[in-house]
Amino acid sequence: MASNNLDEYLEGFTGPARELLEQLHALASESVPEASEAIKWGHPAWIHPAGTILFVISGHAKHVNITFTPSTREAFDAELTTLETGKGTVKLPYGAPVPTDLLRRMIAYRLREFEDDGVLWN
Questions:
Q1: C-alpha distance from residue 100 to each of 7, 116, 119 (Å)
Q2: What are phi and psi of 6, to 5 degrees?
Q3: Hey, what long-range contacts does 27-33 have (CB within 8 A, 24 or more apart)?
Q4: Which of 35, 74, 84, 104 sits a CA distance of 20 to 30 A from 112?
Q5: Could you give the CA distance from residue 24 to residue 64 in angstroms, rounded to a whole number?
Q6: pTM reported for the whole predicted model
Q7: What is the tens place of the pLDDT at every residue in 78-101?
Q8: Residues in Cβ contact with 8 at an 8 Å cutoff, skipping those fewer than 6 apart
């Protein structure tokens, strides 16, 4: 069943998965309070008031992904060496320390990347 909002999405998770998703939700809400939340491709996304996606989180069996534009993820390559990454994703394994300061800076970078450089994701 596809969820229509963040609360419904979170209901599908328990234990460490739910805790990490809630922690990322709080971090996102604090970092970009002006952004709205929506479900995109079945996962929670934070949307800039101008309409572009800033980032998406998704829960999986053993980790949570936070997905940015590839350019945002690449800008932090030197700091992401201990985490598994994909084209725009950062994999956060359950039970491991969450790099909240790094994620805060990545969110700020993504916001600036859109507002100053016009990098879209719709």
A1: 22, 24, 23
A2: -65, -40
A3: 27/100, 27/103, 27/104, 27/107, 28/55, 28/57, 28/107, 31/104, 31/107, 31/108, 32/107, 32/111
A4: 84
A5: 9
A6: 0.93
A7: 999 999 999 999 999 999 999 999
A8: none
Residue 1 pLDDT level (bands cut at 50, 70, 90): very low
Which structure tokens are listed for 90?
């950062």
- Domains of the chain and any CATH numbers: 6-117 (3.90.1150.200)
At 9, which amino acid appears?
Answer: Y
Q: What is the mean pLDDT of residues 1-10?
A: 74
Residue 19 structure tokens: 């805790």
- Please give the Cα distance from 101 to 27 (Å, whole number): 10
Residue with tokens 């932090």: 76
